[in-house]
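Appendix B. Raw example, untouched.
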Amino acid sequence: MHWFTPLEAGAFMMSFRYSSGLIVGKFSPLHLGHEQLINQAIAQCETVYLISYSKPEFSKCEREQRERWLNLRFPEVRSVVLDDSNLSDFVNSEDWPCLPSNCASAEVHRKLCAELCLMHFQTAVDAVFSSEEYGAGFALYLSEAFSEYYHREIKVVNVCEDPERLLLPISGTEIRSDPHGNRQYLSGEVYRDFVDKVCFLGGESTGKSQLSRLAAQLFETEFVAEYGRALWDAQGGVLHEPDMLKIAQVQVQQEEQACLMANRYLFCDTSPLTTLFYSHEMFGEVDPALEDLAKRTYEYVFLCEPDFDFVQDGTRRDDAFRRLQHAWYLRELKLREIPFIRLYGTIDNRLRDIESVLCDAVFVDADT
């Protein structure tokens, strides 16, 4: 470890223009324009503070997503991401029973941010970073609030970066209206939360693997194969009870990784729910961690009917087992209140039905 001498430490401190800077925004979603602004603040400030909230929140930009995006992209920034459920953790609940709406006055929003700086961050920032006109008035308000609190004159500087958005001509509103058409303005970690995961369930020999590949080709995107089959092959056709949890965990990991490269949809050949079935069937028990993974949600679930000839590939049981498994899916999906769409007929018929469902969904999204 290198220890700085006083002279080196002073030079290091002098390399920053400001001791601390503040950025406030909805970040719904966090796009590359926001990232450019944050990077500018990081380059100029010893410490960067960030506040994010929106009321109402926007679909797929809820607090958990925004918090994850910021932690992934900017772990060095001190971020506070708010909604009504956690607001009282940061400010006095009597003064702030809920977040101000997006259409509340500028003074209300400025007051909340000042209190967060003083009460939570316990600091008076030196600079406010923004790319919009509100920055000057915001900096002036903070200067007055901090001066009154600390009983000395404090001046907060307004730093306005690319106000005309010449470098990245995009806004959160534009991206929310068409996140897939504007994906070039989103990092992979952010865009993947806009990818709809499509899951195929069904008994053995119902076309799941073939459908996931064909649907991915049709929609020019990615698919995730069944990891359980790959592990079964790798272990010479033998699986043990601990393998069940491993199968579900790796399946989820592969889905999350594939979302980074997917385009609008990710097609998944099976889910941890399938692994749950095999754990019950093969070993008569289920790891609690596998039970939790089996609750994983998908935007679309297609259940493949066992209505064409059973094909034995050397690894499958028989048609009776296929029908037993199908009946289990029907019961389990209804018990868990998971919406699903049943696929009938040939592979071509099933593929047309998938295309119809997803294209209708795209049309509805475009109208809303």
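End of appendix B.
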